[in-house]
Specification:
single chain; 12 helices; disordered N terminus; binds zinc ion
Length: 494
């Protein structure tokens, strides 16, 4: 007996060690990460060339859906109110179900482009990605619903044709579009869901001037924002995405407020048991058509699918989700800092904050700027900032020469007028709405032009030092009159 007891005591530490080893083994081994080079190379090789700007329509994606190869199966889920087919594509024979849907807001198209890039990638073969594809195909069962709101996309607006926000219709299901998204989840019961959106370009990563190029959220499933196993997985996957993004675009990630919204899809998917990841594509400097942001979407989606297939996401800590900076809304297109403005014969030093608005023209758009804030704007950041210390605000004039047509106006002529203090010219009525890139406001009626520094005014003015016109701001675009960089982005004839 004594001997045996002795033996047990000797064995005990070994047993403990064995238990520890066993519990480690219950977590799958972490597979090697996909490198940034691999993710980028996959995008470059497979991006869909027929989609090159944000305002594509349903008719542009239908052929891309219907021409998919045998790896994909296609199903019509139903129709939008205006009768456009809403499609679902499926890929893979695995047991882990993942649903990805995009553009439930019609003017949020960035991720839709990335989904078509991903389809091309999944259909590729005989390259260095074959084993990755094989893994995804074997482990995952993917379903995609690109462009949930085709009627909104048709006119590039957020809401559907009934003017309902589909992302507030998850419970009521008033709209056929929301109904079929919900039915697609119920039919599939996915373990993971990717809810793909765009956000305003004015969101920044809190406390920094960096745009929140990608914002993320693991939506809450209740008012008290508890973390259960379902939500925990969303957070872990987001930590993996953030890791990739911080390497490519450091500081350009924001985390959305997780207040529970009982009518939204993300929150309800989470509540219904699908680990849901919200991705919001924001802004990035000099990427108005969001083609770089599309690439980022592709890279983090492919990486996330890999992490689901390998279960690599288990390695991430929930705490690292909360480390991601919050989203803030402190960006403007242009801030002119410390400019002297005149009022009642007195001068005041102020900052002027300017934002651009997109004005739809057929399937394209032009930009129209206005002054949106004034005063101490030190807590705001501009995509572009102009230090106007020592410069004075000077209103511009409209050239009242003979009525001319848009065709007769050359860039050279426009620049000559600008240097003489004219910010606008009026042309024949027939030109109204036409696009141009001249360094002047072009209007058909003189009263369409205003130059002032009050909020709501179009951003048209000069900045002068002594008697030299140093800068012109034309429809919100800064022109350095000593070194003008032309042409300007497209404007239309007002
Ligand atoms: Zn949205």
């Amino acid at each position: 007996m004594r001997y045996q007891r002795f033996k047990v005591r000797l064995l005990l530490p070994h047993l403990l060690l064995y238990v520890v080893l066993l519990s480690c083994q219950s977590d799958p081994a972490v597979e090697p990460e996909l490198t940034l080079e691999e993710l980028e190379a996959a995008y470059q090789a497979y991006k869909e060339p027929s989609l090159s700007h944000r305002r594509f329509k349903h008719r542009d994606i239908v052929p891309l859906i219907e021409q998919r190869g045998a790896d994909f199966s296609m199903k019509r889920l139903g129709q939008s109110i205006q009768g456009r087919d809403i499609y679902q594509l499926a890929y893979g024979d695995g047991s882990i179900k993942v649903l990805l849907w995009s553009q439930m807001h019609g003017n949020e198209s960035t991720a839709t482009m990335a989904l078509f890039d991903l389809f091309n990638f999944l259909e590729g073969e005989n390259d260095s990605f074959d084993s990755l594809r094989h893994l995804i195909k074997k482990q995952l069962h993917l379903r995609f619903i690109p462009m949930v709101n085709p009627d909104g996309a048709e006119v590039f607006q957020r809401r559907n044709s009934l003017d309902i926000d589909l992302n507030r219709d998850a419970i009521d299901e008033t709209t056929p579009e929301a109904h079929l998204l919900k039915a697609a989840r119920e039919d599939f019961q996915p373990a993971f869901g990717f809810n793909l959106h765009d956000q305003q370009i004015y969101y920044n990563s809190k406390g920094t001037p960096k745009p929140a190029t990608i914002s993320v959220l693991a939506p809450a499933f209740n008012e008290s924002k508890d973390i259960n196993e379902v939500r925990k997985k969303s957070m872990q996957l987001i930590v993996g995405m953030n890791k990739v993004l911080q390497r490519i675009v450091p500081g350009h990630v924001g985390k959305y407020d997780d207040a529970f919204e009982p009518r939204a899809f993300g929150d309800n998917f989470q509540k219904w048991g699908t680990s849901t990841i919200l991705i919001e594509s924001g802004g990035y400097p000099n990427d108005p058509e969001k083609q770089y942001i599309r690439q980022l979407n592709f890279m983090i989606l492919l990486n996330a699918l890999y992490e689901i297939a390998t279960q690599n996401y288990h390695q991430y800590e929930v705490e690292d989700y909360f480390v991601i900076p919050d989203n803030d809304n402190k960006l403007m297109d242009l801030i002119v800092r410390k400019v002297q403005v005149e009022q009642q014969g007195q001068y005041f030093k102020v900052d002027l904050g300017i934002k651009q608005q997109e004005v739809r023209v057929d399937s394209s758009y032009t930009l129209s700027s206005s002054i949106v804030d004034k005063g101490d704007l030190s807590v705001f950041y501009g995509y572009e900032e102009l230090d106007a210390e020592g410069l004075a605000f000077k209103p511009g004039n409209i050239w009242k020469g003979t009525h001319t047509s848009l065709d007769e106006l050359t860039e050279h002529k426009a620049l000559e007028l600008l240097k003489k203090g004219y910010l606008a010219i009026s042309v024949k009525k027939e030109n109204k709405g036409e696009a141009h890139q001249l360094p002047l406001m072009v209007v058909t009626e003189e009263k369409a032009f205003r130059s002032g520094h009050q909020i709501g005014h179009a951003a048209n003015f000069f900045l002068q030092r002594d008697n030299e016109l140093r800068y012109a701001v034309v429809n919100g675009f800064v022109i350095d009159l000593r070194n003008p960089k032309l042409p300007l982005p497209a404007q239309h004839v007002f």
